[in-house]
Structures are given as C-alpha cells and as structure tokens.
Design brief:
single chain, 208 residues, alpha+beta, OB fold (Dihydrolipoamide Acetyltransferase, E2P), 6-stranded mixed sheet, 13 strands
Length: 208
C-alpha cells in the first residue's frame, strides 16, 4: 500500500526518518547517474511525456493512434506502462522493509530526499517470484495524487504500441492481474492500466 502524495508509507512506529534519508540518499546518489535510462531512452521518455501532457497523442503512420510506453520484464513476462505516468527509473540499491504492511509492499527508499514506497507487482498480482536478482529496477509512477515505485526485473526500453493491436487479456491472465490490464498485443506485451492501479484503494495506506 502506497501513501498519498510522496510521503511513502504513512505507518506509525519508531522509524528514524532522518537517518533513513541520510543513509539512502548517499546510496542513491552514488548510482543514479550510472544506472539511469540510456540517453536515447531518456530523451524519448521526456518527449513522449511532453506530447501527452500537451494533449497531442502520438500517431503511428500505419496503425493510427499509438501509446508510448516503457516496457519491462516481470516474472519472465513482458509488461508496459504508459510514459505519461512515469517520472524516472532507478536501480534498487537499498530499501528499508516495513512491518505490518501487505506482502506486496517491499519497503521504502529515499528518492530525491523524499520517502517513496516500493510495490512488488509479483505479489500484488500473485505471480511466481522468479527473476529476483541484485539488479532489480524501480519505475517511479504517479498521477499527481498518488506516487510510488514499481519493482521490475529489467527495463527493456521505450516502445510505441498501436491501440488497434491491443486485445483483451487471454485466458492465462487470470485473477487480480486481469483487472489492471488495458490490453495485450499479439506478441504478449501486457499494457498495464496504471491509472487504475494508482487509484485502487488496496494500494493506499491511511495514516490513521
């Protein structure tokens, strides 16, 4: 469950936030330059976000309207998130677990001096936990009201998905995962409905 605004998890207890910030700020700064998106992908991400915010949908010459998205791997499957929801990608260098939270809440990190909670979609979607390694990535997503990090096994890159190619989820995409899909391409790239995930009450922690 991710907290409102950028406060991360609003859970009470004896967490030393100052020490946490100092410790993780140093770790994040040491690797943020080295492990960010490639310059090409970074420019593409910024361009796509600017176009979407300006209300100019990206067009595909042959297929019509397309959705610019960031593709990533999760439990051996391909997923994508619209770039309009993405602020940044970064390596998962260090995180602090929190007690008394649902299993899909991995913990919290310091992100640019702010506490950011990390969601493990494997557990949220009840997927097998394969692909875990020391090089996991975090995709920072938000909609202006909610903000958290999504854990990914690897970042594939920026791609453009024609809307006409999206199909309903196949029978293998069952359970809670099916609720949050915008569609699946013929190549089995699953586009997540991140707006719906960000608004879902199951990923919100209330301070009380």
């Amino acid at each position: 469950m991710a907290a409102r605004e950028a406060r991360g998890l609003g859970v009470g207890g004896g967490i030393d936030w100052s020490a946490l910030l100092e410790r993780q700020q140093a770790a994040n700064e040491a690797v943020s330059e080295e492990h960010s998106l490639s310059p090409e992908d970074d420019r593409a991400l910024l361009k796509a976000r600017a176009a979407l915010l300006a209300g100019r949908p990206t067009k595909d010459a042959e297929s019509g309207t397309s959705i610019d998205c960031l593709e990533f791997l999760l439990s051996g499957e391909r997923y994508a998130v619209e770039t309009a929801y993405i602020s940044e990608t970064l390596p998962l260098v260090e995180f602090t677990p929190l007690f008394c939270t649902p299993p899909f809440v991995l913990g919290i990190i310091n992100w640019r001096g702010r506490i950011l909670s990390i969601i493990d979609l494997r557990r949220f979607f009840e997927l097998p936990e394969i692909g875990l390694c020391d090089l996991n990535r975090v995709i920072v997503v938000g909609d202006g009201n909610m903000e958290f990090g999504v854990l990914a096994d690897a970042i594939v890159g920026i791609s453009s998905v024609p809307v006409s190619e999206l199909r309903p989820a196949p029978a293998t995409f069952t359970g809670i995962r099916e609720e949050f899909l915008s569609g699946v391409t013929a190549e089995r790239l699953a586009l997540l409905d991140m707006g719906k995930i960000l608004a879902d009450k199951r990923v919100v922690v209330h301070d009380e």
